[in-house]
Amino acid sequence: MKKIFVFALAVLLGAGTMSAQREGGPRRMSTEERVEHMAKALDLTAEQQKKIIDIYKGFESKRQEGTRPTREEMRAEFEKIDKEVNAVLTDEQKKKYEEMKQARRRGPRR
Length: 110
Prior knowledge:
This protein has helices at 2-23, 31-42, 46-65, 71-88, 91-106. It is an all-alpha fold. The N and C termini lie far apart (43 Å).
């Protein structure tokens, strides 16, 4: 009887953990969260933050209105966004921004 109870408890805990992982998995950062993160890392002014939010919002609205873009179209759009964001930054911020992008490409260290 004790083995059955332990087994049932393990099954219930496992099912609860699996459903929590499915529902609570990683989510995309909102535009505001992304810019807030950039603001802290790059020491952005309020005006820079507003301009960058506008850049990202423009991209999001384009993405929602049309058909699904190809990989090449997405890459071109990301390059365009990157150029627009770089135009808003100072030289020192550009260096830090490039370091952030390189770190993101390398992925998390294990």
